[in-house]
From TrEMBL:
The modification 4-aspartylphosphate is found at residue 1159. PROSITE patterns: HIS_KIN, PAC, RESPONSE_REGULATORY. Residues 701-759 form the PAC domain. Residues 777-1055 form the Histidine kinase domain. Residues 461-488 form a coiled coil. Gene3D superfamilies: 1.10.287.130, 3.40.50.2300, Histidine kinase-like ATPase, C-terminal domain, PAS domain. InterPro entries: 2C_system_His_kinase (IPR050956), CheY-like_superfamily (IPR011006), HATPase_C_sf (IPR036890), HATPase_dom (IPR003594), His_kinase_dom (IPR005467), HisK_dim/P_dom (IPR003661), HisK_dim/P_sf (IPR036097), PAC (IPR001610). Residues 1098-1230 form the Response regulatory domain. GO terms for molecular function: phosphorelay sensor kinase activity. This is Histidine kinase.
Amino acid sequence: MQTVDIRGLYDEDPRPTFVVDCDDQPAGIYHVNSALLDLPHLALSLHAHNALRDWWDPSSRVASRHQQEFRHGRYRWAKFTACQRWLIITLIEQPPQTEEPKGHLQQSSQLARVASPLHPHAETIFTVKIQSPELREHIERLQKVDWGRTSLGPIAGWSYELNLLVTTLMLETRPTAIFLGFDHIIVYNLAYGAVSGSRHPAILGQSILDAWPEVADPQTRFADTPEKEYHFMIERNGFVEESFFMWSLISLVGVGQINGMYSIVTEVTKQRLLERRVNALLRFGQLSSEAVDAKAFWKSIREAIYPSEYDFPAAVLYSHCEVETTGSAVTYSKTTSRNCSLEWTIGYRVNHPDIPQKLDLEQDLPLGRAIAGSAKKGVATLYRHEDGRLPSTLFTDVEKRGFGDPCKAMLIIPVRTSNETITGYIIVGLNTRRPYDTEYQDWIASVALHEEEVRNRKRQEEEAARDREALSAEVAVLAQEASDVTEKLSNFYQLANAVGLGYFEFAISGELVHANEAFFHQTGHPRDLSNSRPFAFLEHVYGPDRELATEHWRMSASGKSTTYEMRWKKKPNADTGSEDDTRDYLWTLTACVPIKTEDGIVTGIFGCNTDISGQKEATRIALLRVEAERRLASFTQTAPVGFYQCDSDLKIQYCNDQWFNIVGHPITDISAIDWTSRIYQDDLEAVTIDSHIVMQVNKLHTFSFRVKKLWTGPDDLSTPTWVLATATAHRDKDGQVVSVMGTLTDVSQLKWAEAIQRSRVEEALESKRQQENFIDMTSHEMRNPLSAMVQCADSISSALAEMEAAINDNALTTQPSLQTKIKDLVGTSIDAIDTIQACATHQKRIVDDILTLSKLDSKLLVISPITVQPDALLQDSYKMFKEEANKARVSLRVHSDASLKDLQIDYAILDPSRVLQVLINLLTNAIKFTRTQPVRKVGVIMSATREPAGRSGIEYVPQKALSQDFLDEQEWGSGEVFYLHFTVTDTGCGLTTEQKNKLFLRFSQASPKTHVQYGGSGLGLFISRELTEMQGGGIGVQSTQGVGSIFSFYVKSRSAAPGRRNSTTFNLPSRAKSHIIQDKQPMLLETATPPLPSPKYHILVVEDNLINQRVLCNQLKKIGCTVQVANHGREALAELAKTKYWKQPAISEPHDLSVVLMDVEMPVMDGMTCARKIRSLQESGDITGHVPIIAVSANARREQIEQAKGAGMDDAISKPFRIPELLNVIDTLLSGNAGGGNVRRG
C-alpha cells in the first residue's frame, strides 16, 4: 500500500482514526484523520505516554497489547494491522452526545441559591493578593478555564462554600484535587499540577475520565477501598518517568449542597523503587553467596539481575581474571593480561556484532576503550547514547525487556576482589523511564560492593566447617545406631519390594553396591553385582533421559539431594501384558541423597525409585484431551469453512463467525438467527428437502445451494453465492435425531471456474468440429478428381497397350515409317500417362499426410491393435512397392532376421496400418533417392529384441515425451513384451550431418534442393516419428553422403497365439492390394504385372458426380461388368426395386445384382440414409437376402468410415482408387472373407 493511499483512504473515514508506521523505530503516529482532529482533546492526548500508548505501541510489553480492543477512559478503541506495516487504530465507542441529566441545568444556580450567598466584601483566592508568583500564575490559569461549559458554571456564580473550598484547596501544600458535579470536574492546586507531569494544565476543568482515563469511575472504584496505589507513566520535562502514586478519595460531606469528592495524592515512587532495589540486592547477595568458584559467581550475578528487567533491561559481563581453584576455595591473582572473555549477556542476541566473545583492551575499539577507561577510574562510569562513546547497537539492538524501550544510558562497573584486583566488568543498561539520580547511583554502588559478598561467603564457609564437624559427630552416633537397626532395615527392604519401591546404593565411582528386587525389576539392571562396572546403570536409562540422569548424578556427587522424574528402558507390554501398551520405557520418580563422610566428602549415592507410569499416562491422556478440545475450538473459529449445529427442528444452536460470513447473515444472537431468510428463493425448497434427508440417512450428506449474498467474480459480474454443505445427524441411543452438525464452504469460485471451463470446452469442440469439416471438405474435393484422373489414366494406359500390341502385328509391316512413328507416339503417351499416375499418386500422398497430421494435432489418432504375423507384414510391404521399384529399375529385397525365430515370435499384437504407414514413408523415400544412382539397391530387414536397444550406428531421435505404457490395456493381451525392428537400407545420395539434423521435423527436408529435385512435402518423416513414438518406439538414421542411408525404427508389441487375421491386407494403401501374394522368402523385384481378372459382376453405381460416374462405369464395363447407375439414394432404391433382391420387383424380368457401390455425400438422399433404408427394408421383408454395399467416398477419416459401416455399409474404399483395388475389395466381400468389413483406403 503506498503512502498516499493509506492517508487518502483513512482521511475519508468518518470514524476517528490514526495510523502508526511500525517500520519506524520506535513506532510513531504517522497520520491522524480529519474525524479525529475534530476531537482536539483526543488528538492532543495521543502523544502522551499513557496506557493507551502502551496498548497500541508494538514495542510495548504490557499484557494489554495483545488485545484487539481497549477501553481508555470513556472511549473504546480497536486496532488491526495492514500490509504488515501499518497499524490502524479506530475509535469504536465514545460518549453519546446526549442532553445533560435532569437537574444539571439548575445545579450551578442551586449551589448559589441554597448555599450561603457570597458577601460582597468576602475575600477568596481570586480576590486576595498572592505573593507566590507560581501560585498566582496557577490562579490566573484557573480563572481562564471556561467553567461555564461544566456543571460548576462560571466562577462568578460560585457559592460561598464552593469559593471557600477552592480557596482552601489552593492554599494546601500537598498535591490535592476536588472532583465536583455529576461528571466529576477536576479542580486542583499547584502541587497537584507538579505531580501530573505533562497532563498539567490541560486536565484542569476536565472530567476525571478525560484527565485520568486509567482511573475509571472513582465512585465505584473507591467504594470499598478509598485509598489505592497507581503505577503511572508521567511525562516530566520531556522525559517519561515511571511513577507510583497513592490516591485517596473522600466524599464531601457537610459542605452545603456541593456534590463531589476530595482527593489527596501522595507520590510513593521512591518507596516502591527502594523496595524493588532492596529485593534485587537481597537476591544478589543470596545467589552469590552460594557460588563456589568464579564461574558460579558470574552465573549468580546473571541470575540475580535477570528478573530486574525494568532496572536492568540489558547487561553484559566480561571476566578479566586468572582463577586458581583449590577444593572449594577461590583465589584471584593479579595479571597483566588485557584480554577479557564474554561470560553472558542479557537482552542481546547471540553473536552480537559489537559484543565479541574475546575482547582485547589493547585494541582501539569503542567498547574496549570504554572498559579500559572505567578500569582506570575504578568506579561505575556512565555512558549515554548521545555521547557516541559506545557502539550505537548496544543501545538500540536489544531485545524487548522491561518497558520495551531502546536503552538510553549504560554503566560500566568494574568488579573487584578484596585485594583490589579487577576480575571483570559488568555493562548494564539503565532504567529507560527513571533518571539516573542520587538514589539510583547509591543503589548501583551497593550492587558494586562485592567485597562484602566475599566476606559473607568466607564467614559462611567457616560456619559450614563448624556445621560439618557437628554433623560428623552426629553421623558417628547415627552409625552406632545404624548397626542396631539392620534387621529393621531388612524388613523395610522386603516391604519396599512388595509395594514396588526400588532402593539402591551406588559408590561415588558409579558401581552399584546394593539394590532391592524392585529396583532390578524397574531398571533391568543385572542382579549379579560381582562384575559391576562404573555407571553401567546408564545403559538401562532411556536414551533421551541419559543426559538428565548424568546431570543429577553430578549434582548428587557434589553433595546436593535431588528429586526428579526419569525413564528406564523396558520391552513393550513387559509389565502390563496389554496389547495397547506400546511404550518402551518405564517412568519413575527418583530421589537421590549423597552419602558423605564426617568431613563432608561424598562417597556414594543412596536413593529410591517409585513407578509413576500410571500417573504419567493418565496425565498425558488428560492433556491430549484438553489440547484436542482446545484445538477443535480454535479450529472452528479460525477455519475457512462455516461450522454449525442445529437441533431436530433445524434451529441453529451454534455457528462460527465464518458461517455468518458465508451465508451473509448479520451477526446476532443465536436465538435470533433465521437461516431460511438468507437462502436464494429458487433453492429454498431443495435445501429444505436436503436438510430432511440428512436427518433420515445415517451417513454424511452433501448438497449445494445459493444464498442471497452476492459474489463478484474475476469478470466483475455479481451472482448469488454458491455454498457447498456437508452435514450429518447425531442420534441418541433410541435412534432419535438430537442434533445436526455440518459445514458450509463457499464454492462460488469453483462454480465460476466450472462455467468458464464448460464454455471453453464447448468452444474447443466447436473449433475441432469446424477443423474436421474443413479437412473433410478439402479431402473430399481433392480426392474426387484424383479418382477420375487415376481411372482415366488406367483406361488410357490400357488402350495404349492394346495399340502397341496392334502395331507390332503384321498390319503395318508394309509401312515401316508409319509403324515407327506410331510406336513413338504410343511410347510418348505411355510416358505421359505414367507421369500423370505418378503425379496423382504424389498428390494423394500429400492429402493422406495432411489428414494424418491433422489427427495428430487434434489428438485423434489412435492405435488399433490386432493379431498379425510380422512376416506377412513384411511381405505385404514388398508387394506394395514391387511395381514402383520395377519401374525405377531398383532392386528391392526384404528379409526376416533369425531373431524372430529365436524369440519364438510367430504372431504379434500391433496396429499393422500404422506400422506400414511408417514403412511406406521410408520405402518411398528410399526408392525416390536411389532411382538416379548408378547402383540401385533397397533392402528391408525385420528383427526383434526383448529390450528397446536400437541398431548399432543408428542415431535415434530423442523422444519428445514419455507416455504411459499403452500395452497395459486389455486389448493388447498378456503376451510377452518385445520390440519389432525394421531397417531400410538404400544406395541413394546419402546425407550430410547438417541434413540429418533437419530430418523428422514438421515440413522439413534435408535441404532446399530436395524439394526441387525429388519433390515431397517434408511431412513423411515427421509423421513417421510421431507414429513410432505413439507405439512406444523410436526412429533414427545412419547416412554417409554419396554412399547411402540406413533408416531404422522399432515399435513395442506383445507376442500372441495364432488367430484369425482380420484382413490379409491390413488396410494397406490401395496401390498394393491387387498384387499381394504369399511369399515369406527374400525376393527380387519382378517385372511382370499380372493381368486383371475378368469378372462378370452386376454392379449398381450410385454417384452424383457425373464425371466420376461415367469414368467408373466405362472402366467396369471394359472389364466385363454389367453396370446400372443412380444419381442419388432415392434413384438407387428405385433401381434396387428392379433387381431380384426385391420381393415384388417393379419389372417383369428383374436383373441380377452383385454389389452396390454407394457414394456417401449426395443430394436428395445421401449414401448413409440410403444404406439404412435398405437394411430397414431387409428387416421388414421387402428385400430378401443381404444386399452387399461398399461405401465409395472421398472422406478417408477412420471415424467417417466407421459411421458408414454403422449405417449398414459392408465395406468401404476411399477415393482415389484403381479398378484392380476395387475388384479386390469386391472379391473379398463376395467371397465372405470381409472379416467384419474393414476399411480399404486408396
